[in-house]
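Lab notebook, page 48
Experiment: co-folding of the full assembly
Goal: obtain a model of how the components sit together before planning crosslinking
Operator: M.T.
Materials (sequences as entered):
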Amino acid sequence: MELEYRYDGSTDGLLCAMADAIKRKERPKIMAGPGEAGLLFADRIHQVQTDEARADEVITYFQKKASKEAARNLLYCLAGPFCSMELELLAYYRMGLKWGRGVDRHHADPVVHAVHQAARNVGREIHRFKGLLRFRKMQDGLYWAPFEPDHDIISALAPHFRARLSDQHWMMHDMRRHRAVVWDGKRLYAELEPEKLLKNNPVAEEEEAMQQLWKTFFSSVTIEGRKNSKLQARCMPLRYWRWLPELV
Amino acid sequence: MGIEDKMAVLADAAKYDASCSSSGSNRKGATGATLPSGCCHSWTPDGRCVSLLKILLSNVCIYDCAYCINRCGNDVPRATFTVEEVVNLTVEFYRRNYIEGLFLSSGVFVSPDHTMEQLMRVARTLREEKRFGGYIHLKAIPGASMELIDRAGRYADRVSVNIELPSSVSLAKLAPQKKKDDIIRPMAYIGEHWKQAKAERKKNRKAPRFAPAGHSTQMIVGATPESDKHILDLSQNLYDSYSLKRVYFSAYIPINTNESRLPVLPMPPLLREHRLYQADWLLRMYKFKAHELLSESEPNLDPQLDPKAGWALRNFQHFPIEINTADYEWLLRVPGVGVLSAKRILSARRNSNLDFSHLKRIGVVLKRAQYFITCNGKFSAGIRLSSTSVRRALLLKDKPSAKAEQLQLF
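Observation: model returned without errors.
Model output:
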């Protein structure tokens, strides 16, 4: 039986699709988002209903059955471009339910390998931005951090900065996805209209001097005799440079 | 002198310190916290990472060490930060997420004790007044009193002393005012205290910390005639006797060109430095001992091959090993298998027998490993097994670059 699942392309939609497959004991040949090609001769097409609360349950259930790490792997994969690996994610989900915390020991398995690889890419970018995010002080005291990550990592990144910059008012701003997270000293929340906080709010007076000091430091610690720009670009890809004051 | 100019002078003067690690400490303050894994914030055009605000408190120095840019005989602009300036810079940079913390060193001005006291004051102000929880690395000034070093260790995450040169003969020649004892004594003291404080904290979690990220040291490679064997034996010794976390090597860059005690090199011995770091990794992570890597008859590392492959070729009678049965220690000794892949092999083979395609997925570099392993008794390289033919094959695979040939130094 050739079975096709169609979902709305969102992460929540995919999680619900996975839950459907488990519950109905079905093995779809394809799980496609909107606009993606389906099967040529599908015997049946199942339309998945997206339900946010249900998607959350899917993750919690998986964490209970498999492990915290496995649930994190799944979430990281969902933060990346997952549109071609839906079936692998479903297989990984199944394996997690079956094997419990042992699932991540199967390093040689193609499915586990693919999931680990994708999760690692996202994890790497999260770690990178722990270093590469730059805050700018605005006139009203807000520290604004614009960035353009490849993956949707803003919510995974925010707790790190809550822990270290807890006594200042800041906003992380994913310029590519137009999403923002704000910490106001007490609460961490998603800001739907980041532009509102930036309106009539230019950078603070001392900001330019501080950036200049940072640039001076940056150029002074370079050792000319060891110049290796290729290594620099490998560690810090050029697409990230736009928001780094020391490199613009 | 304005703060901008001071920054230019004092960051420039600090850049030859190799250490930039910010790992190994777990701390949280009102402003700032450390990340146990460490974190790089930027990379300079020389490819080195920027993780800490690496500056000198002052580049005024009463010593006249031949290799150092800040020696008193040099005609360079001199500057000194005040304690408040350093504290402010650190906090402001930290708030913008430019840095992970502070790495503060200094030239020796007035006296070793006076300098050490100033360094300690910066760390104390950051911790006590600013409630700063980021990473702090302080240099211990050779010749400073142990009491001051003890106080520095209470505020800093790492306190370290540079051994500068690999032997006391070289030290006497190039840095006559620094005594070997002035360097070894604080090193031993820090190592001892670090161990004690760690043990105390296991019993009582409120016991005071002492440099929780441990200590490190640095030596210049290529300025003096010591062999690689001498350097690695010394490193091994430092790890064993003083519980160091890291030994850094810095390829000698001729700064003081008018100095007759130093050799003239066409370019810094970067490849040699790289090979030494590879060997150092084998000591720390792969359970190798220095005497296994080099011998009296072969006192220098092979510039063409990495030290692990070199060791495996010299001990070829132990290979090939069977991936599905070999124990962890032996997996670690296979060229192309790292700590991570060795651990993955251990856990993956509990589920199924492994073949070459599995190994590739696990992350083993088969390009190198294929000559040294079998999977279920199969050998895949398809060449005659002898150390000379494998050596030839390995060299063919990683094409030796033009830099691979290092010129004779002496």
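Interpretation: The longest strand of chain A covers residues 143-147.
Next step: discuss with group before ordering constructs.
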